[in-house]
Amino acid sequence: MAGTLTLNLKDSRPDQEVSGGNVPWYAQAIDRLNQDHAEGKIRYISLSGKALQTPNLSRLIDYRFTNFRTVHGNPLANALHADVSHIIGSYTTHVADWNVEIAIGPRWGNGILSHLLRYTTGIHSPPSPSGGGQPDRDSAEWLLALAWVSTFRHAMRRSHIPKEYRIRHSHGPFFRGRLDVARQIRDSINDASRFHCVDAPLTADTTINRTIRCVFRLLSTNRAYRELLRDAIGYDQQLAGFGVADADVALESIRRIRYTRMTSGYRPLMELSRALLQRLSAKHQTQGNQVLSFFIDIAELWENYLHAILVRELPPGYTVHNPNERGGEALFTDGSRHIRPDLIIHREGIPVAVLDAKFKAYKRIGRIADKGNISREDLHQMATYLYHYGTPGRPITGCFVTPIPTDDNAHKSLAGQANHHITVVGLPIDLSLIHI
User: Fold this and answer.
1) Residue 269 near residue 152 (C-beta atoms within 8 A)
2) N or C terminus: fewer CB in 10 A for the chain?
3) 343 and 303 in contact (C-beta within 8 Å)?
4) 224 φ, ψ to 5°?
5) CA–CA separation, 147 vs 46, rounded Å?
6) Is the distance from CB of 358 to CB of 107 less than 8 angstroms?
7) In a shared domain, residues 318 and 371
């Protein structure tokens, strides 16, 4: 194995230029990423702890070659432009003799990402400490740690400490459980003072709890990660008090966990733990071992952020809900073709606004689907929402909510529907107000 190559990109940003002699390997890695996405092999993580469907994207990254060089009389790609979707995370594959990682970071930096996380999940991202050995705040490893903390908190809110009955054999002076007749006859027929017994005590020393303690220990060795976990120290101590071992956990044992209705809430946390353990342990292994890949839908985080703001700030008489939580609503009378807008605002039970949280650089509706204008597909989708949720004789507004300022051409009324309006609402985040 020759070593590791890393292609660093940003989410939701078109025409990102990549040049140099490694372009052919990067292009092959992108092709494999898109193929694995199409085949459902990519791991997608929800920072809200909700079930996350595979993003409705045909390709995660599009690219085109823009420059070639000649090698032994043959053209070889020397530069490409990449168009990246609204996904952040990491993907690693093997190309020729190289281990190639595609790392997609947040378009507007981890300052905004940390702010969104703090507002929606309560995760506080501590200041970058001085000194070596600290994680890069733009790295895939840091994103994975943030996702683990978010999912850990969600699991703690919704689930009890997992426990299981574990069969135990004993041979002693006390009788507990049931008698193992075969062993008793074989070994203790001449000694009635000792009993071969089988019982199944309830224990918290399960694979789930051991995995949580293992990840907690590995992250706590780094001061920056330890700050992320500062409010979870009590939980780790509680697990220790219940007799949960603080030992390394095999990745295969995590994969073999059988979930019940009581422990199903821990499944996302265990998947993240497996990815994080493999990534952290990869630092101490020889090059060439594949790192488990993961991706986070940044658009979902933006939607959760908007939802949190509305829940806190809407005046009395207004409510907001997410139709996705109930599977959406059927568009046709036969129950087919469900529609799922991001958020709906009601006033006294009547829909007054349909919100589409767009983590895109939309500034206006525009006359055509040009740069900065709402795309044709998004516009037609919003018109369908208004048709479905609108109430005769009552106004309703479709709002595209973006993280950048909008201009004066951001509001229009639908022809033939005087009560239906569509607008673009900018909700810019001022980084100068964020203490990072």
Assistant:
1) yes
2) N
3) yes
4) -65, -45
5) 8
6) no
7) yes
Residue 322 CA to residue 151 CA, distance in Å, equals: 20
Parent domain of 190? 167-200
Q: For residue 120, what are its two tokens?
A: 């929606």
Per-residue three-class SS string for 9-57: EECCCCCEEEECCCHHHHHHHHHHHHHHHHCCCCCEECCCCCCCCCCCC
Question: Phi and psi (nearest 5°) for 27?
Answer: -65, -40
Contact 364, 406 (CB under 8 A): yes
Percentage of the chain exceeding pLDDT 70: 86
Written as six digits, the tokens of 45 are 């993580």
Taking CA atoms, 130 is separated from 94, 135, 224, in Å, by: 34, 11, 10
Length of the chain equals: 436
Instruction: Give me the half-sphere count of Cα atoms (radius 13 Å) on the Cβ side of residue 110.
Output: 20
Residue whose tokens read 């609204």: 86
Considering the domain architecture, whether residues 187 and 126 belong to the same structural domain is answered as: no
Cβ count within 10 A of residue 430:
7
In a domain, 309, yes or no: no
The total of other beta-carbon atoms located within 10 Å of residue 348's CB is 8
Nearest-angstrom CA–CA distance, 393 and 139: 52
Tell me the C-alpha to C-alpha distance, in Å, between residue 267 and each of 166, 240, 257, 296.
Answer: 21, 21, 9, 16
Note whether residue 279 is domain-resident: yes
* Terminal Cα distance for the chain, rounded: 39
Please write the tens of the pLDDT for every residue from 287-343.
444 445 778 888 888 888 899 899 989 999 999 998 876 777 888 888 888 888 999
List, for residues 146-196, the tens digit of each pLDDT value.
878 878 887 887 678 888 888 888 888 888 888 888 888 887 667 778 888
To the nearest 10 degrees (0 to 180), the angle between helices 140-158 and 109-121 is 0
**What's the token pair of residue 30?**
């992108």
